[in-house]
Amino acid sequence: MHKNFIAVVFSIFCFTPTMWAQSKTAALKVNEIKTSDGSHATALGLQMASVKVMVDTSLRGPANPAVKSIVNGQMAYLSLDFSTVTGSNMLEITNGTHQFWVYDDQKKEVKIGNQILKKIGGSMESSIINYTVKIPFRLKTDQKKYSIRYRWESPDKKKWIEVLSTK
Q1: pTM of the predicted model, to two decimals?
Q2: Quick one: which of 137, 138, 131 has its CA closest to 161?
Q3: Which residues lie below 8 Å from residue 22, measured CB to CB, with a gap of 6+?
Q4: pLDDT in tens, 87-103
Q5: Could you report the per-residue pLDDT of 36-73, keeping only the tens digit for each?
Q6: 38 in a structural domain
Q7: Do the Cβ atoms of 58 and 118 come closer than 8 Å?
Q8: Do the beta carbons of residue 163 and residue 35 sit within 8 Å?
Q9: If you ran DSSP here, which 8-state letter would residue 107 be given?
Q10: Which residue from 146, 133, 71, 55 is spatially nearest to 105, judged by alpha carbons?
Q11: Cβ partners under 8 Å of residue 115, min gap 6
Q12: CA 118/CA 25 separation, integer angstroms
């Protein structure tokens, strides 16, 4: 009384080039950044008003030599003051990698044993960040020219800032 019935279903899928998934995010563009001294600066995925570039010799180490400090009072620092950074947040800037390289006038890399100094601030609500980076690059008494390259990369490596300055 019961008849066995077998149903076979064939599905045919046809794809056209417009059906493939496309990214909904806008393509990231390399932006030239205006600097206070004409240094070369670019950013990918971020926008900023400007970068103030200057040499800072005012940093002093601790008065007591027994106190450990990351500030070396004998070094001159290249100060990079990034203002009104948008396209990121404070957590991403903090967790990103901050790297620097120093080259002498013969384009040979100079190894610097001191750490980079960072001060990151801004508004959590509006995602506007202001941050300052201080890079040790020479002794205060040394008056030779050095080229300093700074690079910040986001944790996912999709955004970056790069500055090249000669001081």
Answers
A1: 0.80
A2: 131
A3: none
A4: 999 999 999 999 999 99
A5: 999 999 999 999 999 999 999 999 888 777 777 889 88
A6: yes
A7: no
A8: yes
A9: S
A10: 146
A11: 70, 136
A12: 30
